[in-house]
From TrEMBL, chain A:
Pfam families tied to this protein: EMP24_GP25L, IF-2B
Entry function: Acts as a component of the translation initiation factor 2B (eIF2B) complex, which catalyzes the exchange of GDP for GTP on eukaryotic initiation factor 2 (eIF2) gamma subunit. Its guanine nucleotide exchange factor activity is repressed when bound to eIF2 complex phosphorylated on the alpha subunit, thereby limiting the amount of methionyl-initiator methionine tRNA available to the ribosome and consequently global translation is repressed.
Residues in GOLD domain copies: 41-192
Protein name listed in UniProt: Translation initiation factor eIF2B subunit beta
Annotated GO MF terms: guanyl-nucleotide exchange factor activity; translation initiation factor activity
GO BP terms: animal organ development; central nervous system development
Organism from which the protein derives: Electrophorus voltai
Keyword Nuclease assigned: no
From TrEMBL, chain B:
Protein's recorded name: Translation initiation factor eIF2B subunit alpha
Gene3D superfamilies: Translation initiation factor eif-2b, domain 2, Translation initiation factor eIF-2B, N-terminal domain
Signal peptide: none
GO molecular function, one term: guanyl-nucleotide exchange factor activity
Domain of life of the organism encoding this protein: Eukaryota
GO cellular component term, pick one: cytosol
Summary of the function given for this chain in its UniProt record: Acts as a component of the translation initiation factor 2B (eIF2B) complex, which catalyzes the exchange of GDP for GTP on eukaryotic initiation factor 2 (eIF2) gamma subunit. Its guanine nucleotide exchange factor activity is repressed when bound to eIF2 complex phosphorylated on the alpha subunit, thereby limiting the amount of methionyl-initiator methionine tRNA available to the ribosome and consequently global translation is repressed.
Cellular localisation: Cytoplasm, Cytosol
Subunit structure: Component of the translation initiation factor 2B (eIF2B) complex which is a heterodecamer of two sets of five different subunits: alpha, beta, gamma, delta and epsilon. Subunits alpha, beta and delta comprise a regulatory subcomplex and subunits epsilon and gamma comprise a catalytic subcomplex. Within the complex, the hexameric regulatory complex resides at the center, with the two heterodimeric catalytic subcomplexes bound on opposite sides.
Amino acid sequence: RGNIGRSWPDAAMARLGVLILLPVVFESVVSISFFLPVRTRKCLKEEIHKDVLVTGEYEISEQPNTKTNLKITDSSGHILYSKEDATKGKFAFTTEDYDMFEVCFESKSQMGTGRVPDQMINLDMKHGVEAKNYEEIAKVEKLKPLEVELRRLEDLSESIVNDFAYMKKREEEMRDTNESTNTRVLYFSIFSMCCLIGLATWQVFYLRRFFKAKKLIDTKMPGADKETDLSERIEAFLSELKRGDNGSGSIHGSGEIARETTALLRRITAQARWSSAGDLMDIIRKEGRRMTAAQPSETTVGNMVRRVLKIIREEYARSRGSSEEAAQQESLHKLLTSGDSSEENFRQYFPPLKANVIEAINEVLTELEGTTDNIAMQALEHIHSNEVIMSIGRSRTVEAFLKDAARKRKFHVIVAECAPFCQGHEMAASLSRDGIETTVIPDAAIFAVMSRVNKVIIGTQTVLANGGLRAVNGTHTLALAAKHHSTPLIVCAPMFKLSPQFPNEEDTFHKFVSPHEVLPFTEGEILSKVNAHCPVFDYVPPELITLFISNIGGNAPSYIYRLMSELYHPEDHEL
Amino acid sequence: MDEGELVEYFRRQMSQDPDMASAVAAIRSLLEFLKRDQSETLQGLRENLTHAIERLEETDSSVAVSSGGELFLRFISLTSLEHSDLSQCKNVMVERGELFLKKISLSRGKVAKLCHTFIKDGAKILTHSSSRVVLKVLENAAADKKRFTVYVTESQPDSAGQQMADKLRRLNIPVIVVLDAAVGYIMEKVDLVIVGAEGVVESGGIFNKIGTYQMAVCSKAHNKPFYVVSESFKFVRLYPLNQEDVPHRFKYKADTLKTAEDLNHEHPMIDYTPPSLITLLFTDLGVLTPSAVSDELIKLYL
């Protein structure tokens, strides 16, 4: 009943008093006895309500040479009762406020009186109703015992009612505190949630900006930016093509052009907006037309566009589940067996189509990477020791081919210089750097030297659909000379040079450049009287060619039609 | 439909539309025959058809009719593989047959579209005898505002070349008729040679009116391109190695075969041009090199 806090008399220790004290609910009776050592102070603290009568009785055991003081104070330091040298007695007071009251016993003695045993203190405190002395009241008011009892009951019940009122008040206070705490917690949690979200968002944006700056992630933005970026690239590529292969552009050689075209087509597939295969094919066809128009003599561009179109058709057919054969070109068989309308309009939407097409284009790119090596690998089968090989002009493919064979065989190469650009000189220099014995001859000497040649190996700009070539000028002469001497003519051409064109359109077939190479402007007098032409290409008919070596192996010219049907769809021949 | 009616129908088709290829007429008649056929089994149907084709060949012994008939038979076999029930099969066949006919009537147009780009402005073209496909090609080229001259051989014994010349004159194309014997003489003047074909064989060579072979040899000697224009239904499964290998039923007219005692005294109407002399073949399946022809035939028949 009731809590008592004990505090040790030292000033520092006094602060370590017990803090939690339940309010006094019922009247409490304290009856306690304890030992008080000499020169120590022991206090009892109690929390007492307002207007409560407190009575107490104490008894201190006698000890010689020690004096014990009793002091009762409240928290503000008012002394309510004080007694020096107390031995036995009573005290009483009424509290004015709801306060903490301290009852202290202090023993004093003269120093150096040796071991003095502790004093025993008996304390008996009563407050509230208990404190009232009913005998006295009975005597004063001349009450009968029953009345005394009634009075006592009355006081008791009153004190109970007071306590209840007090409880109710406390409860209200508690509830208010509760509510306010609740709201505060709610606000706090909302605030902390917002903080968290804000922090996370900021983090994301910051990191994104950071990675973009470090170019670790792709900087493409959705919407219009993507489109403008794409069209910028296409324009850049077109201008590269238009500038041509005069050495001023950064793209050298048809291999690089093929790779650039395919990469650009892959980008178009990835970034342009399309929903069905038909849309994609239209987009690619449109871009393809622009690209081929930029540089008509560069057929590799058109070839890669057609390859990609074929890929799209195949992937579409595969997605549809129909066999690939059905999508193939016209054949008598197809004429007879197709029951329904063969109008394939490619309008169905398939989600994985984009990924499949891009994957297939990646395969094409991988193939493109390895073409020169694949061709060069076949060199040892065709070139034998102590042979004399003739070539014309400069072809990277033939260069790689010959260098690969030179690793194991010793042979001699004769290169026709191929006027007026004389690319043959560079070829000869490059070959001789690799330790191949090379001779350079002028174009006019081709026929004269041909009788000593075992094989003629040439590159080409384009392989036409009938198996003929569009090669650098001078090649037709070389081919005729080879035919006359029955020397095999081998053409090293990667598959991307295979074009579905026929040599019928003379106006687009030939490319003419400045006749300055043929007849320099310094010869002004002659220039006014003659017409000088400088064609770049020659047509070589298929009957002069013995073998085509491409990255998929060796083929006869009469087989070209088959290779073409595998690479391109007939509807794409005209972009 | 008995065979007499069939022949009548065929003849009527030919006379109604002289521009239609004989193979198309044959296939149309056979389709009609199929529609009216009463046989219960597939085998019976095939037998009837085979007889019908034989009758047609007796009427018109051209290679085209033979190839058209064989194509039709193949069409029947392919369709019958898919459906087992005869009546259902027949419906499908009739439906597909109509579709097929529609497609092949367009084939001449496709060939002409492919070929006319090969004719350049100011070209001199040499052609042999009368071919409706070549006529279509030249028509398209003229419509494309190209200027060219045409030399036509007379092509005895039926002077078909004169008819060709008349048709060309009506199209306002300058045309000159030359003797069959003058082919070698005229070859140096021309730029390219275009001929039609009665039949295209597996090796990529062609059967055409007598005189085509020497024209091809001459053009090879002079290095002139020799182009053949033909529809795809003229492909036949034959592989002649020389002129002797050409079957008699193609070489001579049907009546000649019946009445002649010694064929050695008869003049053949067809000769065989080997593929080595042909530059390109223009068909409705695309522009083919002679080596591609066998591929097409294999796809169909095997």
